Amino acid sequence: MKIGRAQALQAQAAGVAPHVDMNPVLLKPSSDTDAQVIVHGKAISNMQAQDYHDYKKVAMQAVLDSHQRLVNQYQVIMVEGAGNPAEINLREGDIANMRFTEAVNCPVIIVADIDKGGACAHLVGTLELLSASEQNRVVGFVINKFRGDITLLQSGLDWLEQRTHKPVLGVLPYLMDLQLAEEDAIQANQTIDQDDIRLRVAVPVFSQISNHTDFDMLRAHPQIELTFVRQGQRISAADLIILPGSKDVRADLELLRKHGWDKDIARHLRYAGKVLGICGGYQMLGQTTHDPKGIEGTIGSSKGLGYLPIHTTLHSEKQLTHSQGKLRLQADVHNNGIEVTVSGYQIHVGHTEREDGFNAFALLDNGQLDDGQLEGCISADNQVAGSYLHGMFDSPQALQQITAWAGADTDKVDTYASQQEHELDRLADACKAHLDWQKIHTFISNQTKSKHHD
Ligand SMILES: NC(=O)CC[C@H](N)C(=O)O
Fold first, then answer.
1. CATH superfamily ID and name for 194-413
2. Which ligand 1 atom is the nearest neighbour of the CA of 347?
C-alpha cells in the first residue's frame, strides 16, 4: 500500500489513520517524461505523460470512488489540489483540481506563496483563467509564507478584495526552518550547532535518487552536518559517506564513476572513513547488479564498487515490507553491549544474496525478503555496510548506534514521529492565529448543509 508522504503527513496532522483513499492516484516520477502510476495503493504501470493523459478517465473514477468512501466516514473533507488550478494545457481531463471540485461540488480556497513573489498577480490571474462556475466556487484566498511588516501588505490585500470581490482569509507567516517531510524535492536546510559538530555525513545526489527522506533525521540532528554532494562536485572530507537509494541503480553507478565519486570513496576508506549504502546504494557497494529483463533501464549487468560480498538481480515484482529487528553493526565507541532495535521499510525490485560467512547489517524479527532474517551486509574490515532498510535513522537508538559505528558519540534526539508532531503543532498554531476561522466555519457548515439536501 503506497500513498504520498504529503497525504500521510496530512493524516497525522488531522489525527486520523492514513488510508489509500486519501491519495487515490499517486504519480511517482521516474524521469522527466514518465511516471509510475499507483491507484488505490497499487502500482498499475509506468506511463509516459501522454499515456497517463489518456488514462485519466479511469483514474478520475478511482478518485470519485475514494471521495465517496471518505464522505461516508468523515464529516469534513479537505482536498489539496495538485499543481495549479489554471494550468490550461492540463485542464481538459484534469482529475486533481477544478474538475474534481466541480464533480463533487465543493468550495475552493486558493493559496499563494508570497515568498516567491507576485502573489497578487498569481491570484488575480488564476481566478481569471477559471470558468465562470469555477470562479463562483472560489470562496477566498490565503497568502502563505509572508515575512516582513504586515501593515505594508494591507493596501495590496484591500486591492485584491476589491478587484476580485473575494475575501482574503488570512496571511500565514513564514515559519523559519519548518522541518516537515517533503514529497519530491530534497530538503537540504539545516540548523546545526557549529561548535559541537560530531559527525560529518556526505550524501552524493544521484540523478535517480529515491527515498531521500531517509536523511531527514540526520538533517534534523544538531550535531550532524549533512552535505548533499551535487553532480559536478567532489565528495570532500567526511566521517561517513552514505549512498542513497536509486530508481536506476546501474545508470547511477555509471554517474557515480563519471563524477569521480568512486575515487573519492576509495580515498575516504584509505583514511579510515565509513561508508553506508541504503537500498540502491547498498546494491552499488556490492560485486554485481544484473538486470536481465531491463526492469530499470537497459538489459545487462554492471560491476559494483566491490566493497561488499553481495550480488543483486532485479526482478519484475516490486517487494514491499515493513521490518523490525536488531542491529548487528558494532560500534567502536559507545558500545555498551546492549542490542539496538532498528526498524524501517523495504521497497525494491532487487534480490540480493550475501556470500556465506559475512556479517549481516541486522537480524530481522520476521525477515521475508532476499537473504531472509539476516538483512544487509557489513564488510570484513567493518568499514562498509549496506542495508535495504529505509527509515533506519528514524528511531533514536538506531540513529545513535549507526553514528557511533561511524565514530561519533551523538546525543539521543526525539523520534521522527514526535519531531514531526512538534513541527505540525507550529504550523497549526500559525493557522489558528492567522486564518479567519469564522468565515471558514461558515463555508464548512454551508457545505455540510447542502450535502444533506442533496
Ligand atoms: N529504493 C531503492 O533504492 C530501489 C533500489 C533498486 N532500484 C531496486 O528497486 O531494487
1. Class I glutamine amidotransferase (GATase) domain (3.40.50.880)
2. 1
